[in-house]
Here is the input.
Amino acid sequence: MAINRINTTEAYVKHLKKTPAEVQALYQDFLITVTQFFRDPETFEALTKTVFPELIRHRKEDDPIRVWVPGCSTGEEVYSLAIALLEFLGDKGKNISIQDLRNGHQ
Here is the structure.
């Protein structure tokens, strides 16, 4: 709206209806384009060295590990996290239920 010097949402909606290129530009603005697998190596190192050992140390035998990745637009972050966790668990991971929290998927 600011780029087009439009002051109200109603005027912007009218502009969107008349300007298909603006709809595409708005769509691109909403996408998170910085995502990629293992985007922040320091974070994954900290997860492997600090967070994952604590998760395992404090979980009961039948407790699942639940993972939540907020703002994950294309899936690379959650898949990277799952890969790192499964690699950390190794053979122990065969007997541990891992869930994402979107809809209780496993």
About this structure: The first helix runs from residue 9 to 18. Helices lie at 9-18, 20-30, 41-58, 76-89. The radius of gyration is 21 Å.
